Amino acid sequence: MEKDKVLENSRLENKGKDIYAIQVEANACKIASLVMVLLAFAYYSYELFTGKGSNPAFYSLVTVFNAAMFGYRAIKIEEKRGWSIFACIVWTILTVMLILTYFGVF
Questions:
Q1: How far apart (Å, rounded) are the C-alpha atoms in residues 37 and 60?
Q2: pLDDT tens track for 83-101
Q3: What is the mean pLDDT of residues 36-49?
Q4: Which of 29, 66, 69, 98 would bridge with 91, disulfide CB 3.0–4.6 Å?
């Protein structure tokens, strides 16, 4: 009986949701995050080698995206929660450091 109840609750919970679309959206978020980090690295490398200096405000946008993504994942998904919390903390610290650098605190 309990198995049937769990199945029924699962069906009700996922009613009207396209599981494939949800998975595609999650993968798209991961890919977008990776592309943002790679692009930021490319810009940073260019600025470093051309002597133009860097813009920490730009990079804080990349890091805050990752901090929010891992934070949300840590709240919503129990699996690998420890890793998500760790990643969220690291990205948040990096974001704060970049913001403080932009405003001249560092």
A1: 11
A2: 989 999 999 999 999 989 8
A3: 80
A4: 66
Chain-centre distance for alpha carbon 71: 8
Look at the block and give the residue holding tokens 């999650």.
26
Separation between Cα atoms, residue 99 and residue 65, nearest integer Å:
14
Alpha helices (H) in the chain, listed in sequence order = 2-13, 19-50, 56-76, 81-102
Residues recorded for the chain: 106
Count: domains in the chain: 1
pLDDT at 1: 59
**Within 10 A of 88 (CB to CB), how many other CB atoms are there?**
20
Range of the domain at 34: 2-102
Among residues 20, 2, 4, which one has the least CA distance to residue 12?
A: 4
